[in-house]
Write a structure and sequence with these properties.
This protein is mainly alpha-helical and 101 residues long. The chain contains seven helices and no strands. Helix 2 crosses helix 3.
């Protein structure tokens, strides 16, 4: 089963960061980052948020392994059921909320 350290490690490699670079971006020591990557220690919430930002992902993905695309597809399915009752302004507001603008 993939754990938080495994996801951090994979995303670190995908983004072509070294352990030292990622540690610096997140604000932890290289040895602390090493423990996170080996699943010996779990990062605190603030560190998870910093990791998510540095790795271009979400805290939810790092913690739970949920894929953003899967989440978006589920949100779309749920919203699609009730959009007929929404005004154009409400739909636009919802879209802006979903994309973070």
């Amino acid at each position: 089963m993939e754990r938080i350290g495994d996801r951090i490690f994979r995303l670190m490699k995908e983004n072509e960061y070294t352990q030292k670079e990622l540690a610096c971006m997140v604000g932890v020591t290289e040895s602390a980052m090493s423990r996170y990557l080996r699943n010996e220690r779990e990062p605190k919430a603030e560190i998870i948020a910093n990791l998510a930002t540095a790795l271009n992902t979400t805290s939810d993905y790092l913690i739970c392994g949920k894929k953003t695309d899967e989440d978006f597809a589920e949100i779309y399915r749920l919203v699609a059921r009730s959009t007929a009752a929404m005004t154009d302004e409400e739909k636009l507001k919802l879209v802006r909320m979903l994309i973070g603008k």
